[in-house]
Amino acid sequence: MRASHAREFKPALQTSFQTSLKGDSLAYSLLGAAQAVALVRTGTNLPQALAQLWARSETSPQARGAMQDIAYRCMRQLGQSEALIAQLAPKAPDPLVAALLACALALMTAPDAVAPYEEFTVVNQTVTAAEAHPDTARAKAMVNAVLRRFQRERAALLETALLQPVAQWNYPQWWIDAARTAWPRDWQAILQAGNGAPPLTLRINARKTSMEQYLQRLQQAGMAASAIGPYAVRLEKPVGVHLIPGFAEGVVSVQDAGAQLAAPLLDVQDGMRVLDACAAPGGKTCHILELADAQVTALDADPKRLARVGENLERLQLQATLRTADAQSAAWWDGQQFDRILADVPCTASGIVRRHPDIRWLRRKGDTLQLATLSAKILDNLWQMLAPGGKLLFVTCSLWPQESEAQAAAFAVRHQAVRLAAPGQLLPGGVAGQDQDGLFYALFQKNA
Ligand SMILES: C[S@@+](CC[C@H](N)C(=O)[O-])C[C@H]1O[C@@H](n2cnc3c(N)ncnc32)[C@H](O)[C@@H]1O
Question: Which of 74, 286, 347, 397 is catalytic?
Fold first, then answer.
């Protein structure tokens, strides 16, 4: 990257500006997506950035869908787009201009078999979008020139950009290096899997249906699907939750196939006391309760996220005790030990980047150590709460050994914990047809 393209993002963006663009135009969606991308570049995660924009504008569901699609595509191709912009723009553009160009370039280089929009439409609508916002209006001619030059010199520009690993893989360099070090054989497949669109996997509620019944229900609804686990069903074409048969009545939930391994591994029996120590939004809490009549305490440090556990329990007609508390502390605990503990600890989320493609651009290299330190404290604190003979399942959605296997090994030594059979590291994608997220599982038992 040229020196003039070193990142200097202005933190103040005029995101509250109400545009006069037509709500159903591509220009409107491009401008919204660009604002979200610019917010990500100042440290906001993408779902929050989009929610922030939608909270103050009357954006139709269709336009929201289009904005979200463009912003997510942009995240998956940001390395390449920024390398192209560095070649094309005479000096580093202002943040919103850079984000708008990155969104346009993501559409113009989309890996889809059929391009999402005609290229000339993307160019025209990007210029229209630039004209419509005070932070980009002055750059209208530059935006036009950059995109038209990209059209003319596409092959050569891409060839040069792709010489840089960040542009080739669309991850920060430190992330590429970390993947290579941790997974010398699989790092390319791992990075590639993180750039794909995630599948839509459902978990059937064993209290309300069987796999056979539910597959039949989908067939009757004309939705192609296949069973990819004892409770896991993958829909061939992802759809919104409101279109999933039985979702509203709690017959199914959305949950990755890998994440569905947690509840069966915990081996919860009726009547057991179970602690789900980092529970929100409650996917695993609910699965535990679908499989056994257990007394579950669902804990989370974030009250807003914990409220989502409540909503999920309600939809599925299940019950648990909800506690907003810090799993590093025992201040909330009544001293009664648990038979089972699930520790689905906070982590870098490097194993679920295909669902959250913004994560790679938000994380910093030092986050891994910081989060591993926090989760070690959580694990150490939870161990005293486990009854003798009880089991603790440690889960992360990370690919970094520091947060996963190294953490598990050190924990076992610190507490003389017996390590039981568990999958260990699941790489994203996984075995053919399964297509799960990159999760880590370690199961411990306390000596009786
Ligand atoms: C990986 S998510 C849990 C996902 C959840 N188990 C599921 O399956 O839906 C980690 C959760 O840990 C929570 N968390 C972070 N730090 C925490 C702490 N110190 N104590 C308790 N919860 C914490 C976060 O708010 C987040 O909801």
Answer: 397
Strands 386-396 and 440-445: antiparallel
Q: Which residues are annotated as a binding site?
A: 278-284, 300, 326, 344
Q: Is 3-169's fold the same as 199-255's?
A: no
**Is domain 3-169 classified as CATH 1.10.940.10?**
yes
2 band by pLDDT with thresholds 50, 70 and 90 = very low
Share of the chain above pLDDT 70, in %: 95
Q: Is 300 in the pocket of ligand 1 (CB under 6 A)?
A: yes
**In angstroms, what is the span from residue 349 Cα to ligand 1's centroid?**
11
Nearest to 401 by CA among 385, 433, 425: 425
Where helices occur in 92-205 by DSSP H, the ranges are: 95-108, 119-131, 140-161, 165-169, 173-182, 187-194
State which fold the 258-445 domain adopts.
Answer: Rossmann fold (3.40.50)
Instruction: Give the domain 199-255 fold.
Output: Alpha-Beta Plaits (3.30.70)
Let me know if 397 is a catalytic residue.
yes
Binding site membership of 282 for ligand 1 (Cβ less than 6 Å)? yes
pLDDT digits (tens, 9 = 90+) for 112-123: 888 999 999 999
Q: Is the CB of 341 under 6 A from ligand 1?
A: no
Partners of residue 386 on adjacent β-strands: 338
